[in-house]
Design a protein that fits this description.
InterPro entries: ADH-like_N (IPR013154), ER (IPR020843), GroES-like_sf (IPR011032), Lipid_raft_assoc_Zn_ADH (IPR052585), NAD(P)-bd_dom_sf (IPR036291). This is NADP-dependent oxidoreductase. With 299 residues, the chain is an alpha/beta fold. The strands form two sheets. Strands 1, 2, 3, 4, 5, 12 and 13 form a seven-stranded mixed beta sheet that branches. The N terminus is likely disordered.
Amino acid sequence: MSGAEKEVALLELPEPSSPGPGQILVAVEAAGVGPWDGLLNGAGWDVGLRPPAALGVEGAGKVLAVGPGVTEFAVGDRVLAHEAPLPGGSGFWAERVLINAEHAAACPPGLDAVHAASLPVNGLTAWQTLEKLDLSRGQRLLITNGGGATGALAVQLAAAKDIEVTTTASAAAMERLLALGAMELVDYHDPNWSAKVRGGFDAALIIATGTADAALPLVRDGGRLCSLTSDAPAEERGITSWDLYVEPNAAQLVQLAEQAAAGALKLAPEPVPLSEGPAAFARAVAGRAGGKKIVLTQA
């Protein structure tokens, strides 16, 4: 990202500074791209970027240097991370990035850089949402947009806990979501989709913009609704309703990475060369990733 005009373009950037106390310098091998990156471009999510700077708040790579006090990582270790704010003022869409060691997770041997970089933001969002929804075996969860990168992970994490998942999705995504553990699917293209599912859900997870108001009547009295689209409706009928914003969490990321490496979590990354970053940014912000997670690579 360049200066005042906030243009997303390929730039030559200065090298990050040497890591300070508690920090590590990472040689980025792959970096995730998501719709939230549009918010970094001067539109609402202040992660401490100091233009000209690289966008990107997630990625994977190898440790190049460690700062004073860092004992959990050594030079050469493979890591993945979601970092916000960015202590170096620049993000993961670069050859090197400075991050806080406490937000990095060791990358398991069975997880390549592209898959690792596709996991942090979407995985942590799904994990933190389900943790707060606090559902138990046999309870019912409605997800809007289960076909996207976050939704597909939420479906899998919920199904692994024997939570019954109903999700909206496109017709093209339905077979894949059934294989991931969804119990019931409804085509979001149908303007009356909310009338096609049985209500009484214990909770709803809103990932598709503009679906919170349609989902709320489907939640039982005393249930819960969590919105990832900043549009949680007013609480009614004893339903707890809130907006959730992802936070870095290395301990959760370690568990997610281990599950992905073991094949318990299916990921769908689409690797794209870093040189195509501006076009990848435009696709992600416009919601044209097609259910894939765009990942920028150094190759």
